[in-house]
Amino acid sequence: MRIHAFLRALFLAALAAPLAAADGPVTGKTAPAFQLTDVEGKNRSLSENKGQWVVLEWVNHGCPFVRKHYDGGNMQALQKEFTSRGVRWLSICSSAEGKQGHLSPAEWRETIKTKGSAATAVLLDPSGAVGRLYSARTTPHMFIVDPKGVLVYQGAIDDTPSANSSDIPNSQNYIREALNLGLSGKSIEITDTKPYGCSVKYK
Questions:
Q1: Domain-located, residue 12
Q2: What spatial distance separates the first Cα and last Cα of the chain, rounded to whole Å?
Q3: Does 64 sit behind a cis peptide bond, omega within 30 degrees of 0 on the bond before it?
Q4: For residue 90, is it within any domain?
Q5: 46-97 tens-digit pLDDT
Q6: Number of domain units in the chain
């Protein structure tokens, strides 16, 4: 009976594995296509960035974990560092109307100025469709897409899951490491990590 139970558990685990993989994008596979409107009212798509490195950053400025990286300028420094090297950086807000982080396009434009965001564009996803497509769970939650459209990294911005900005200098920044390796034509060593932060405020 014990052997039977063990085999049954293995069988159920095998069934569950593909379901878990189907729950979100798979690293090493083509990144899910999407279209969203930016804060200027312009339609944007992932496909328009074909041939370039792309960072997707889920954002909510009401979240203390996001403030950790913006108030001290860490996120903006990353944005400037890599957009200057040709990387496209798309910040995405999936906060639903009436929930933390949701802003009107006009409010977003003012916030971008106030925060000094250097993202290529800020995209609005109030329905949460694209957030759910990527299984974005936290703010921040980071994804990197290579010039071939393949998802090569997903997870946390760094290895210190705190809301304390003083932890940043001693943290391992997964985004900087992955982009430096990728832009140098080298294989990205860390491709999947557990994201940390506030839950995405879906509709």
A1: no
A2: 46
A3: no
A4: yes
A5: 999 999 999 999 999 999 999 999 999 999 999 999 999 999 999 999 999 9
A6: 1
